[in-house]
Design goal:
Helix 1 packs across helix 7 (about 245-260) and helix 7 runs antiparallel to helix 8. With about 290 residues, this protein is α/β, with parallel strands linked by helices. It contains eight helices and 14 strands. It starts with a strand and ends in a 13-residue tail after the last helix. A hairpin with a 5-residue loop joins strand 13 and strand 14. Bound molecules: adenosine-5'-diphosphate and beta-D-fructofuranose.
Length: about 290
């Protein structure tokens, strides 16, 4: 069991299940509607807590009524919220269209909250933690938090997820042990192959293990010694829901690292867990007993 702090977002996901993805201006009756906790960092913690870890979340939480399911679900997973900043207003809300025709998830996201930053992070007592994970959002703020972590607790292991292009996020590259990129980010930088991205990032982050997820092709990694790895995806019998696959993958990676596994094993374990998630609806039931 490790003590893991994740910094990022917690959202309310309104998940509509549809027989197929609709045309623009169409009217379609959903097969199901499920409100759920979402947000990359929150999702990753929900999975890590099921894997037996003690989890804490640092993010901005709204106090409006719509935030109730978010707070309930975080509490249900015993995720500590001491590090959170509470503000008046609506929580971030995502309208998610999950198509039963292949399990794709299309996300429309609304957010009207300030970003969590170093002003909040510097108040956290980092003493109990074994690992800190950042959902890379505001570039300069994430860089400040990561720098503070490195200066105050150089021994504390740290990962950053770089899912979307964010101005200034590159400033974190030289300061962390693990960087996880998305295919979207690789494409944004002009790379249509995973290795090209990894070798490019390595110039700015020689100290880090680098990972990029590649959807149905699995994930690729380049470790600090320069060794390259690939794990194929673990396809479930039926792909039911890919929402949160990347967040589950990140939980699998962190879980493997805190248990002392190397990048090759971690990639494979993370892909296995993410594949399992794709074969089921939602993020429950991914824990120890089920592994
Ligand atoms: P995100 O959910 O952030 O868009 P990806 O689509 O890259 O991230 O998926 C993350 C990981 O989830 C992949 O590396 C892979 O292991 C797994 N995965 C994604 N889609 C599938 C799928 N259709 N079948 C099996 N595994 C999948
Ligand atoms: C999935 C997710 C959803 C959320 C959206 C936010 O990775 O975290 O739960 O609505 O992304 O961008």
């Amino acid at each position: 069991m490790a003590r893991i702090l994740a910094i990022g977002t917690a959202t309310l996901d309104l998940i509509f299940t549809l027989t197929h993805y609709p045309d623009e201006d169409a009217e379609l009756r959903a097969r199901g509607l499920r409100p759920s906790l979402g947000g990359n960092a929150a999702n990753t913690l929900v999975v890590l807590s099921q894997l037996g870890h003690m989890c804490a979340f640092g993010g901005v939480l709204a106090d409006g009524q719509e935030a109730t399911p978010i707070l309930e679900r975080l509490a249900g997973h015993r995720i500590d919220l001491t590090a959170c900043r509470r503000v008046a207003g609506r929580p971030p809300i995502s309208c998610v269209l999950v198509s039963l025709e292949g399990g794709t998830r299309t996300i429309v996201h609304f957010r009207d909250l300030p970003e969590y930053g170093d002003a909040e992070f510097k108040r956290i007592d980092l003493t109990p933690f074994d690992w800190v994970h950042f959902e890379g959002r505001d570039g300069p703020e994430t860089a400040r938090m990561v720098r503070r972590l490195r200066e105050t607790r150089p021994d504390l292991l740290c990962s950053v997820e770089v899912e979307k292009p964010r101005p200034g996020i590159e400033a974190v590259f030289a300061d962390v042990k693990m960087l996880v990129f998305s295919r979207v980010y690789a494409n944004y930088l002009g790379f249509d192959a995973p290795h090209a991205l990894l070798f490019k990032i390595r110039e700015q982050a020689p100290q880090a293990d680098l990972i990029v997820t590649w959807g149905k092709e699995g994930a690729y990694g380049l470790d600090r010694r320069g060794a390259i790895y690939h794990s194929p995806a673990f396809s479930p019998v039926e792909v039911k829901d890919t929402l949160g696959a990347g967040d589950t993958f990140n939980a699998g990676l962190i879980d493997a690292y805190v248990r002392g596994r190397g990048l090759a094993d971690a990639l494979s374990l993370a892909c296995r867990l993410a594949g399992k998630k794709c074969g089921q609806i939602g993020l429950e039931g991914l824990g120890e007993k089920e592994r």
